[in-house]
What we know:
The chain is an alpha/beta fold. The chain has helices at 11-22, 34-43, 60-70, 85-93, 106-120; strands at residues 3-7, 27-31, 48-52, 75-80, 98-101.
Amino acid sequence: MAEILVLDDVLDAVVLIKKILDKQGHTVHIFTEEKDAIAYAETHRVDLAILDIKLKKMSGIQVLEQLKKMKPDISVIMLTGYPTVETVREAIDLGAGEYCVKPIDKMELEEKVADILARRS
Length: 121
């Protein structure tokens, strides 16, 4: 199963994602602070990062850029409550493999995680 990093500035959101993905057998590491998530990724294996676009100090796009510089092979799913064509395009150009709109649909998240992890192998 996968090592998954989840970053959202809303604690309830990361807890919900963790509960969903724990049941799938993944190991999920949750963060509400950008610097903590980036620091964790520097020193640990991360197969998949799930990043909210709207964060406190940085954007999810900026975090995506940093993670891809450190770990070019990392898979990424972006989350947003405010989808726009521009943010979708930018996220995909920077290497995000999937995009989920909030509120998170359990089945959609499970399917997208399974799909993106299947592409890694």
